[in-house]
Amino acid sequence: MKPPLLAFNKKGIYCAVANVYLDPWRPVEKAIISHGHADHSRYGHKKYITHHTNVPIIKHRLGEIEVTGKDWGETFTINGVKFSLHPAGHIIGSSQIRVEYKGEVWVFTGDYKTEDDGVAVPYEVVKCNSFITECTFGLPAFKWVPQKEVMTDINEWWQQNKQDGRASILFGYSLGKAQRLLKHLDPCIGKIYTHGAIEKMTEVIRPLMNFPETTLITRDTKKDELKGNIILAPPSAQGTPWLKKMVPYVTASASGWMTFRGARRRRAIDRGFVLSDHCDWEGLISSIKATGCEKVICTHGYTDIFSRYLIEQGYDARTEETQYEGEIGELEAKTEQTEAVENLK
């Protein structure tokens, strides 16, 4: 039996014929990178290949690296293996990686979502024989409402807090979620302030996208300036002395995990908005079906549950261990996953 075109080893997802890794988690000679999140684009590789809009993002995060940018659908060949990048819809610059050799086609999704968020290039169906999919939210309990409804709720929440004389602190990841929120916040309500991590990343992306004006919070920012306005901050800022300047404030988090009340309670968040940069249950299933694939490899998330479902539907499905974390850090994810499974009982 011939070896698979893509195989999982201790360094990452490996194409032996081309001697190339996809999103490796240990240093390698040549890496094709799906997107800029830290669990998929790591430091230490000698050569990086990624979509050109992701180049400034990973350079901002990793420093001066040797990186080549590619266009959507541009084919590049390494030792007879054809590679191309296709929109994943996850965050700006996120790609699916198509790999073709001797008529066999594999697609590695990285992270992806099917809803057009107005920031990332929308997800594109890529036909293949084998499909490597994340399962971050691979349970029927996860069903997203349209982004327009969620953003209406967020803007109404901000407006109410302004009327109550309080600052609104909205937590979201500095790359991806923060820009998605920023794109759809209503600046007519008030000013949009940012944590330094979000401001720096947004400035990297701003030449690629029209965003509302933001104001960086500094030591010189006065408490009265923040009252009634909204502050975008990364989850790591929660519970830190940095928040003292915002008093009185109300907090909220935008995440797929806000589906469960327990997640909001554990994080001491006043309000949770269900907004994810990953597929929900139906999004995963419809995406897999649309590819026409026969084989599915499930990574990071509810791999066992989701792969069993796929097997029942007639797919040749299995799981593989990776060092990708999905929407939240691994330790926190385990807590959320435990609750999600309990909700199904």
From TrEMBL:
NCBIfam families: Xnuc_lig_assoc. Gene3D superfamilies: Ribonuclease Z/Hydroxyacylglutathione hydrolase-like. Transmembrane segments: none annotated. The keyword Ligase applies. Keywords: Exonuclease, Hydrolase, Ligase, Nuclease. One of its GO terms (molecular function) is exonuclease activity. Its EC number is 3.1.-.-. It comes from Gillisia lutea. InterPro entries: MBL, RibonucZ/Hydroxyglut_hydro, Xnuc_lig_assoc. Signal peptide: none annotated. This is Ligase-associated DNA damage response exonuclease.
